[in-house]
């Protein structure tokens, strides 16, 4: 295994047959320890706000390193859809948005709810997305990796089309960050929920906004934590938000961020390109064992019947997988090895 994979693997307790990172990543022992320590302090009436603030700062900086941007470009949140909603609120009345047909709804619903303002949302196939971005389109919103089947978007074509059309790009990298190298500088706005491939607790998410995009977005969730001086913003009446992306912060769920910091620091310390090579190699080996073409992704989707027969067979063989979009979804990550490939392939072959 590559050094990056060995380092990440050494930090967790691998679960044989766990092929469901696309639903939820396995936690590092340091994450569990940080959350247990925080729970114990809470139970004893000894919560430490400075520690929690420090955890948010550590997590923000580590995530920024993972996606290749300054920490000043990064805002924190609890989940992806409210962060997408910040972008959706900036679409002008009668504006036009292009999305991927069948994309995860957290990328789509926040735009659909603005239909009463005349906002039009066009759904197109992933392969046709770049061609659909033309003058008059205000936003193109897409998942970098599709949740349903692991297909990877053509970033070069999409961003080039958006630049020609003057459209804002919104990329949801939730199913990418952690196994696929992500350069968030390429998009106006990037959103990531960190509880999947980055193995952070659920309830931790990030928004990355390039400086030229910050002024185009409204801080819908303006709160004390988004203030220029956090602890000087807890009472009104005057509002002074941070000048950078931190103005989009929401108030953090403290225990979740205590656990997120060590998880994200682990990924910031390794070469994600090595993780990508490992994960895709396992997925492609699984496909080869079934006589299928390479996946080219860490996610593999197989068709299943309405009763979920194939998923039930995999579960019975000790493989934790997800049923998604009428199929079975398998996700290969640093906790997996060739034994997991062999177990899953044998279950599918019956």
Map the helices and strands:
Elements: H1 3-10, H2 29-43, H3 49-67, E1 74-77, H4 80-89, E2 96-100, H5 109-112, E3 120-124, H6 129-132, E4 139-143, H7 155-165, E5 168-172, E6 189-193, E7 205-209, H8 211-214, H9 254-268, H10 272-289, E8 299-303, H11 309-316, E9 322-324, E10 327-331, H12 338-349
Parallel strand pairs: 2-3, 2-4, 4-5, 5-6
Antiparallel strand pairs: 1-7, 6-7, 8-10, 9-10
Helix pairs in contact: 2-9, 3-9, 10-12
Task: Describe what you observe in this structure.
The chain is an alpha/beta fold. 37% of the residues lie in helices and 13% in strands. The chain contains twelve helices and ten strands. The strands form two sheets. Strands 1-7-6-5-4-2-3 form a seven-stranded mixed β-sheet, sandwiched between helices. Helix 5 (109-112) links the parallel strand 2 (96-100) and strand 3 (120-124).
Uncertain residue ranges = none
Spatial strand arrangement across the major sheet: 1-7-6-5-4-2-3
Give the DSSP E fraction (strand runs of 2 or more residues).
Answer: 5-15%
N-to-C span: 29 Å
Considering the protein shown, what is the CATH homologous superfamily of the largest domain? Type I PLP-dependent aspartate aminotransferase-like (Major domain)
Class by SSE composition: alpha/beta
DSSP strand tally = 10
Give the SSE string. Answer: HHHEHEHEHEHEEEHHHEHEEH
What is the CATH C level class of the largest domain, in words? Alpha Beta
Please bin the fraction of helical residues.
25-40%
Question: What is the approximate shape?
Answer: globular
- CATH architecture annotation of the largest domain: 3-Layer(aba) Sandwich
Q: In the CATH scheme, what's the topology name of the largest domain?
A: Aspartate Aminotransferase, domain 2
Strand count, sense and barrel status of the largest sheet are: 7 strands, mixed
State the helix count.
Answer: 12
- Indicate how many domains the architecture comprises: 2
Rg, alpha carbons: 21 Å
Determine the mean pLDDT. 97
């Amino acid at each position: 295994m590559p050094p990056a994979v060995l380092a990440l693997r050494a930090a967790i307790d691998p679960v044989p047959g766990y092929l469901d990172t696309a639903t939820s990543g396995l936690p590092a022992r340091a994450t569990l320890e940080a959350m247990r320590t925080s729970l114990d302090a809470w139970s004893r009436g000894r919560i430490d706000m400075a520690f929690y603030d420090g955890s948010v700062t550590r997590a923000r900086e580590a995530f920024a390193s993972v996606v290749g941007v300054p920490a000043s470009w990064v805002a924190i949140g609890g989940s992806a859809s409210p962060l997408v909603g910040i972008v959706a609120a900036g679409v002008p009345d009668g504006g036009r948005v292009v999305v991927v047909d069948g994309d995860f709804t957290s990328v789509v619903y926040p735009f659909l709810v603005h239909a009463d303002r005349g906002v039009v949302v066009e759904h197109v196939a992933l392969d046709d997305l770049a061609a659909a971005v033309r003058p008059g389109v205000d936003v193109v919103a897409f998942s970098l990796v599709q949740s349903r089947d692991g297909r990877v978007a053509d970033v070069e074509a999409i961003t080039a089309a958006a630049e020609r059309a003057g459209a804002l790009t919104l990329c949801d990298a939730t199913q990418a960050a952690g196994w696929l190298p992500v350069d968030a500088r390429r998009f106006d706005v990037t959103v990531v929920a960190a509880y999947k491939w980055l193995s952070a607790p659920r309830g931790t998410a990030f928004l990355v906004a390039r400086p030229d995009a910050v002024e185009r977005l409204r801080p819908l969730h303006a709160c004390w934590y988004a203030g220029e001086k956090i602890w000087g913003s807890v009472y009104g009446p005057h509002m002074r938000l941070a000048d950078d992306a931190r103005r989009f912060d929401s108030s953090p769920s403290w225990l979740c961020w205590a656990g997120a910091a060590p998880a994200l620091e682990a990924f910031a310390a390794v070469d994600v390109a090595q993780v990508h090579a490992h994960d895709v190699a396992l997925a492609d080996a699984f496909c080869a064992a079934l006589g299928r073409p390479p996946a080219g992704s860490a996610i593999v989707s197989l068709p299943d019947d309405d009763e979920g027969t194939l998923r039930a067979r995999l579960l019975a063989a000790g493989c934790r997988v997800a049923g998604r979009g009428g199929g079975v979804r398998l996700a290969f990550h640093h906790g997996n090895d060739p034994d997991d490939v062999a177990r899953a392939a044998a279950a599918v072959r019956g």
